[in-house]
Amino acid sequence: MKTKRKAVVLLSGGLDSATVLAYAARKGFECFTISFDYGQRHRIELKYAKRISRQLKAADNLLVSFNLRKWGGSALTSSMKVPKGGLKPGIPVTYVPARNTIFLSFAISYAEAICAKDIFIGVNSLDYSGYPDCRPQFIEAFAKCANLGTKATDEGWKFKIHAPLQKLTKAQIIRLGTKLGVDYSLTSSCYDPNTKGHACGKCDSCRLRKKGFAEAGVRDPTVYVD
Q: Is-contact 10 120, C-beta < 8 A?
Protein backbone atom coordinates (compact mmCIF):
# COMPACT_ATOMS: atom_id res chain seq x y z
CA MET A 1 0.00 0.00 0.00
CA LYS A 2 1.36 3.39 -1.01
CA THR A 3 2.04 5.75 1.92
CA LYS A 4 0.31 9.12 1.67
CA ARG A 5 2.37 12.30 1.73
CA LYS A 6 1.88 14.21 4.95
CA ALA A 7 0.69 17.81 5.01
CA VAL A 8 0.19 20.30 7.81
CA VAL A 9 -3.02 22.31 7.38
CA LEU A 10 -3.62 25.53 9.30
CA LEU A 11 -7.17 25.22 10.60
CA SER A 12 -8.93 28.11 12.32
CA GLY A 13 -12.40 26.59 12.27
CA GLY A 14 -13.56 29.09 9.67
CA LEU A 15 -14.92 28.71 6.17
CA ASP A 16 -11.67 29.16 4.24
CA SER A 17 -9.48 26.85 6.31
CA ALA A 18 -12.15 24.12 6.26
CA THR A 19 -12.21 24.32 2.47
CA VAL A 20 -8.43 24.09 2.31
CA LEU A 21 -8.47 21.00 4.54
CA ALA A 22 -10.98 19.31 2.23
CA TYR A 23 -8.91 20.35 -0.79
CA ALA A 24 -5.69 18.91 0.66
CA ALA A 25 -7.43 15.67 1.59
CA ARG A 26 -8.88 15.34 -1.91
CA LYS A 27 -5.38 15.81 -3.33
CA GLY A 28 -4.38 12.67 -1.46
CA PHE A 29 -2.49 14.13 1.50
CA GLU A 30 -2.60 12.73 5.01
CA CYS A 31 -3.62 15.91 6.81
CA PHE A 32 -2.36 17.02 10.21
CA THR A 33 -4.28 20.12 11.28
CA ILE A 34 -2.89 22.79 13.57
CA SER A 35 -5.10 25.34 15.36
CA PHE A 36 -4.19 28.24 17.63
CA ASP A 37 -5.59 29.55 20.90
CA TYR A 38 -3.86 32.93 20.90
CA GLY A 39 -6.18 34.89 23.18
CA GLN A 40 -8.67 35.71 20.42
CA ARG A 41 -12.10 36.96 21.49
CA HIS A 42 -13.71 34.48 19.09
CA ARG A 43 -12.01 31.36 20.49
CA ILE A 44 -15.33 29.54 19.94
CA GLU A 45 -13.80 28.87 16.51
CA LEU A 46 -11.53 26.26 18.11
CA LYS A 47 -14.53 24.08 18.91
CA TYR A 48 -15.46 24.22 15.24
CA ALA A 49 -11.88 23.43 14.21
CA LYS A 50 -12.11 20.16 16.14
CA ARG A 51 -15.46 19.33 14.55
CA ILE A 52 -14.41 20.03 10.97
CA SER A 53 -11.14 18.18 11.53
CA ARG A 54 -13.12 15.10 12.54
CA GLN A 55 -15.66 15.49 9.72
CA LEU A 56 -12.91 15.65 7.11
CA LYS A 57 -10.95 12.80 8.74
CA ALA A 58 -7.71 14.61 9.54
CA ALA A 59 -5.02 12.37 11.03
CA ASP A 60 -4.68 14.69 14.03
CA ASN A 61 -5.74 18.14 15.27
CA LEU A 62 -3.00 19.87 17.25
CA LEU A 63 -3.87 22.89 19.42
CA VAL A 64 -1.10 25.39 20.20
CA SER A 65 -1.70 27.98 22.93
CA PHE A 66 -0.06 31.35 23.52
CA ASN A 67 -1.44 34.75 24.54
CA LEU A 68 -1.26 37.69 22.14
CA ARG A 69 -3.43 39.68 24.56
CA LYS A 70 -0.23 40.45 26.42
CA TRP A 71 0.40 43.21 23.89
CA GLY A 72 -2.92 43.48 22.05
CA GLY A 73 -2.80 45.74 19.03
CA SER A 74 -6.00 44.30 17.53
CA ALA A 75 -9.73 44.29 18.17
CA LEU A 76 -9.45 40.49 18.29
CA THR A 77 -6.88 40.45 21.11
CA SER A 78 -7.91 43.42 23.25
CA SER A 79 -10.96 45.27 24.60
CA MET A 80 -11.10 47.35 21.42
CA LYS A 81 -14.51 47.12 19.71
CA VAL A 82 -14.93 45.02 16.58
CA PRO A 83 -16.15 47.30 13.74
CA LYS A 84 -19.68 46.55 12.52
CA GLY A 85 -20.12 49.21 9.84
CA GLY A 86 -18.90 47.32 6.79
CA LEU A 87 -15.62 47.03 4.92
CA LYS A 88 -13.57 50.23 4.68
CA PRO A 89 -10.29 51.08 2.89
CA GLY A 90 -7.02 50.37 4.70
CA ILE A 91 -5.96 47.76 7.20
CA PRO A 92 -8.77 47.18 9.72
CA VAL A 93 -8.37 47.05 13.51
CA THR A 94 -9.19 43.32 13.38
CA TYR A 95 -5.77 42.71 11.85
CA VAL A 96 -3.62 40.86 14.43
CA PRO A 97 0.03 41.97 14.15
CA ALA A 98 2.10 39.32 12.30
CA ARG A 99 -0.49 36.60 13.03
CA ASN A 100 0.12 34.53 9.90
CA THR A 101 3.89 34.88 10.34
CA ILE A 102 3.51 33.36 13.81
CA PHE A 103 1.11 30.65 12.63
CA LEU A 104 3.25 29.62 9.69
CA SER A 105 6.36 29.48 11.89
CA PHE A 106 4.62 26.97 14.15
CA ALA A 107 3.35 25.04 11.13
CA ILE A 108 6.82 24.79 9.60
CA SER A 109 8.30 23.55 12.88
CA TYR A 110 5.51 20.97 13.25
CA ALA A 111 5.93 19.88 9.62
CA GLU A 112 9.68 19.45 9.98
CA ALA A 113 9.16 17.35 13.13
CA ILE A 114 6.71 14.94 11.46
CA CYS A 115 8.55 14.85 8.11
CA ALA A 116 5.88 16.73 6.15
CA LYS A 117 7.04 18.91 3.27
CA ASP A 118 3.70 20.53 2.43
CA ILE A 119 1.85 23.28 4.31
CA PHE A 120 -1.69 24.39 3.42
CA ILE A 121 -3.13 27.76 4.42
CA GLY A 122 -6.47 29.36 3.54
CA VAL A 123 -5.34 32.90 2.81
CA ASN A 124 -7.25 34.85 0.19
CA SER A 125 -6.59 38.19 -1.50
CA LEU A 126 -9.93 38.88 -3.25
CA ASP A 127 -12.87 38.71 -0.81
CA TYR A 128 -10.96 39.44 2.39
CA SER A 129 -10.47 42.19 4.98
CA GLY A 130 -7.24 43.64 3.60
CA TYR A 131 -4.73 41.97 5.91
CA PRO A 132 -1.11 42.31 4.66
CA ASP A 133 -0.23 38.75 5.73
CA CYS A 134 -2.77 37.28 3.30
CA ARG A 135 -1.06 38.60 0.18
CA PRO A 136 0.72 36.32 -2.32
CA GLN A 137 3.99 38.22 -1.88
CA PHE A 138 4.03 37.42 1.83
CA ILE A 139 3.38 33.70 1.30
CA GLU A 140 6.12 33.51 -1.33
CA ALA A 141 8.59 35.35 0.89
CA PHE A 142 7.79 33.17 3.90
CA ALA A 143 8.35 30.01 1.86
CA LYS A 144 11.86 31.24 0.99
CA CYS A 145 12.51 32.02 4.64
CA ALA A 146 11.28 28.58 5.74
CA ASN A 147 13.52 26.78 3.29
CA LEU A 148 16.57 28.82 4.31
CA GLY A 149 15.99 28.45 8.05
CA THR A 150 15.45 24.69 8.30
CA LYS A 151 17.41 21.52 7.55
CA ALA A 152 15.79 21.53 4.09
CA THR A 153 18.49 23.90 2.90
CA ASP A 154 21.24 21.36 3.76
CA GLU A 155 19.42 18.18 2.79
CA GLY A 156 18.34 19.20 -0.70
CA TRP A 157 14.55 19.31 -0.32
CA LYS A 158 12.03 22.13 0.03
CA PHE A 159 8.92 23.02 1.94
CA LYS A 160 6.01 24.03 -0.26
CA ILE A 161 3.35 26.39 1.06
CA HIS A 162 0.06 25.87 -0.75
CA ALA A 163 -2.50 28.69 -0.81
CA PRO A 164 -5.12 27.26 -3.23
CA LEU A 165 -7.77 29.88 -2.36
CA GLN A 166 -5.49 32.85 -2.98
CA LYS A 167 -7.27 34.11 -6.10
CA LEU A 168 -10.81 32.86 -5.48
CA THR A 169 -13.83 34.90 -4.45
CA LYS A 170 -15.72 33.83 -1.34
CA ALA A 171 -18.50 32.47 -3.56
CA GLN A 172 -16.00 30.37 -5.52
CA ILE A 173 -14.52 29.07 -2.27
CA ILE A 174 -17.97 28.02 -1.03
CA ARG A 175 -18.81 26.29 -4.31
CA LEU A 176 -15.49 24.44 -4.18
CA GLY A 177 -15.99 23.38 -0.57
CA THR A 178 -19.53 22.23 -1.27
CA LYS A 179 -18.24 19.99 -4.07
CA LEU A 180 -15.58 18.64 -1.71
CA GLY A 181 -18.16 17.75 0.94
CA VAL A 182 -17.48 20.46 3.52
CA ASP A 183 -20.27 20.81 6.08
CA TYR A 184 -20.21 24.59 6.59
CA SER A 185 -22.52 24.30 9.60
CA LEU A 186 -19.39 23.00 11.37
CA THR A 187 -17.49 26.24 10.72
CA SER A 188 -17.47 29.64 12.43
CA SER A 189 -16.29 32.91 10.88
CA CYS A 190 -17.59 35.62 13.24
CA TYR A 191 -15.13 37.96 14.98
CA ASP A 192 -17.59 38.86 17.73
CA PRO A 193 -19.96 35.96 18.50
CA ASN A 194 -22.26 36.02 21.53
CA THR A 195 -21.86 33.73 24.53
CA LYS A 196 -23.83 30.99 22.75
CA GLY A 197 -21.49 31.12 19.76
CA HIS A 198 -24.06 32.76 17.46
CA ALA A 199 -22.53 35.00 14.79
CA CYS A 200 -23.05 38.78 15.05
CA GLY A 201 -23.85 39.06 11.33
CA LYS A 202 -22.30 42.54 11.11
CA CYS A 203 -18.52 42.27 11.44
CA ASP A 204 -16.37 42.18 8.29
CA SER A 205 -16.00 38.41 8.43
CA CYS A 206 -19.75 37.83 8.78
CA ARG A 207 -20.49 40.23 5.94
CA LEU A 208 -18.03 38.44 3.63
CA ARG A 209 -19.47 35.07 4.62
CA LYS A 210 -23.07 36.18 3.97
CA LYS A 211 -22.08 37.71 0.64
CA GLY A 212 -20.25 34.55 -0.37
CA PHE A 213 -23.17 32.21 0.31
CA ALA A 214 -25.61 34.56 -1.43
CA GLU A 215 -23.44 34.84 -4.55
CA ALA A 216 -22.71 31.10 -4.57
CA GLY A 217 -26.43 30.29 -4.44
CA VAL A 218 -25.79 28.01 -1.46
CA ARG A 219 -27.85 28.07 1.74
CA ASP A 220 -25.96 29.73 4.60
CA PRO A 221 -26.18 27.39 7.64
CA THR A 222 -24.84 30.01 10.05
CA VAL A 223 -26.88 30.90 13.13
CA TYR A 224 -26.83 34.70 13.37
CA VAL A 225 -27.86 36.77 16.39
CA ASP A 226 -30.40 38.70 14.31
A: yes
pLDDT score of 192 = 97
1 located within any domain: no
Count structural domains, the chain.
1
Note down the domain range covering 51.
6-216
Sorted by sequence, the CB contacts under 8 Å of residue 173 that are 6+ apart come out as 15, 16, 19, 124, 127, 165, 212
pTM score of the predicted model: 0.95
Phi, psi for 61 (deg, rounded to 5): -125, 105
* Burial readout 109-135 (b: 16 or more C-beta within 10 A, e: otherwise): ebbbeeebebbbbbbbbebbbbbebbb
In a domain, 225, yes or no: no
Decide: 90 and 131 in contact? Cβ < 8 Å. no
State how far the Cα of 204 lies from the Cα of 159, in Å rounded to an integer. 32
Using one digit for the tens of pLDDT, what is the confidence trace for 2-23? Answer: 678 999 999 999 999 999 999 9
